[in-house]
Amino acid sequence: MSMFENLDIEFMVETMPLLLKATQMTLFLAIFSLVIAFVLGLIIAAIRYFNIKVLSQIARFYVSFFRGTPLIVQLFLIYFGVFTMYPMLTELPATVAAIVTLSLNSAAYMSETIRAAFESVDRGQIEAALSLCMTKLQYMRRIVLPQSMRVALPSLFNSLIDLIKGTSIAFTIGVSEMMAMGIYEGSRQFNYFEIYFDIAIIYYVMSVILGFLQKKLEYKMSKY
What we know:
single chain; about 220 residues; mainly alpha; about 0% strand
């Protein structure tokens, strides 16, 4: 109890608006990365689902690498490695490196979720579609995707939540997001516990909101 009695509540209240303002960058990183990751994950999942030669092996290695290495290592490899190897990339802001890393990392996880959802669709339906002379693109769009997205929805929302939390490492390369703002404000008066407690609350609230939206979306999709 003594730990909570020593909390500087006034400091927490004062810094909360600053942290909330910094969530704009956090959400920008997360949403931008989500769009790229979903498209890339869908492509990788399709490549592995259809077992396209050569590309399937490359996709398998890609997924294995990004799932098997820490996110912060990937960020440093891209920002301090790849971006410094090419002069044209050194001019890009650190925000781009953060988006690229988050997108590539999240796409690896999403691709496995989507591929598993593809596999869950009854093969009998696909055979029926082929017997009607549907192309692969047609039966993917009309049969596989509508059913698989309903199955994949909970896991995709989990990926989004992980993506939002993953943006917290962007401060390590100088991106001014919520974590960077928290470290700066906390260092002014050495109120680190209070500032990190504020940050934890904000992340938790965002996760709860996403969980609520997930349930609403699942309910709507269950009607179709």
